[in-house]
């Protein structure tokens, strides 16, 4: 079986950018052409025709589900990138900033905290942050 026969888009006679309705209509058209009930008597027991029908059925089973179709498209893209010598495209790195310490000055206003821990938990006085 050649690679062209394994590609579900080529089996259905479509491009990889085909819409879901185009996939469905191509599948139905091919199913009408190759279904055993619509074949002539001379072609009804042809094993090659049965194999072609199986390829049509499996191609549609793969492409009708959007998640399976997306996974297939990703796998084809990754395989093409791996076969070529071109490095995969990467997102440009953000420029790094020099590490400067952040200086925060805390000014506490209000009454001083009571001596000892409060009975209800940790008490924090109002804090105002300045840069």
Structure description:
This protein is mainly α and 131 residues long. Helix content is 45%, strand content 6%. It is built from five helices and two strands; from the N terminus they run αααααββ. The chain has helices at residues 3-6, 8-12, 20-34, 47-63, 66-83; strands at residues 105-108, 127-130. Strands 1-2 form a two-stranded antiparallel sheet. Helix 3 runs antiparallel to helix 4. The longest helix has 18 residues, at 66-83. It is elongated. The protein starts with a helix and ends with a strand.
Q: How many H/I helical runs?
A: 5
Q: State the low-pLDDT regions, or none.
A: none
The assigned structural class equals mainly alpha
Main beta sheet strand tally, sense and closure: 2 strands, antiparallel
Give the number of DSSP strands: 2
Strand order of the largest sheet: 1-2
Beta content comes to 5-15%
Overall pLDDT confidence: 77
The ordered H/E elements are HHHHHEE
What is the share of helical residues? Answer: 40-55%
Produce the secondary structure layout.
Layout: H1 3-6, H2 8-12, H3 20-34, H4 47-63, H5 66-83, E1 105-108, E2 127-130
Helix pairs in contact: 3-4
What's the gist of this structure?
This protein is mainly alpha-helical and 131 residues long. It is 45% helix and 6% strand.
């Amino acid at each position: 079986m050649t690679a062209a026969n394994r590609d579900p888009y080529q089996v259905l006679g479509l491009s990889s950018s085909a819409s879901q309705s185009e996939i469905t209509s191509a599948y139905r058209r091919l199913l009408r052409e190759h279904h055993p009930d619509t074949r002539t008597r001379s072609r009804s027991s042809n094993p090659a025709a049965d194999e072609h029908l199986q390829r049509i059925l499996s191609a549609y089973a793969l492409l009708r589900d959007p998640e399976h179709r997306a996974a297939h498209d990703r796998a084809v893209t990754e395989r093409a990138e791996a076969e070529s010598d071109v490095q995969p495209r990467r997102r440009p790195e953000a420029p790094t900033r020099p590490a400067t310490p952040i200086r925060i000055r805390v000014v506490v206003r209000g009454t001083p905290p009571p001596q000892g821990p409060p009975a209800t938990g940790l008490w924090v006085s109002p804090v105002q942050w300045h840069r």
